[in-house]
Amino acid sequence: MANSCEFCVYYTYSDDIEDYECLVNLDEDDLYRFYSSGSNECPYFRLDDEYAVVRKQN
Question: Which of 8, 10, 26, 54 has its CB 3.0 to 4.6 Å from that of 30, i.e. a possible disulfide?
Fold first, then answer.
């Protein structure tokens, strides 16, 4: 499964702009590498697993 923004921990709803946004803080060099890589995979993707904390408690 290709990673998708909808399942990423960094993709959250902002009440200020009333839309979803990515919270990864990229500088100009990172942004350039990301767009020029030609890959559809985001290197910053992290699955938003809301049950991870519960599994650690067991």
Answer: 26
Would you list the domain boundaries of the chain? 1-40
Token digits of residue 51: 């049950």
Contact present, 19 and 2 (Cβ < 8 Å): no
Residue 21 to residue 44: CA distance in whole angstroms: 14
pLDDT of residue 23: 93
pLDDT of residue 13: 94
- 30 to 20, 26, 27, 46, 55: CA distances (angstroms): 21, 6, 5, 17, 34
Whether the CB-CB separation of 20 and 57 falls below 8 Å is answered with no
Integer Rg of the chain from CA: 14
Longest CA span, the chain: 43
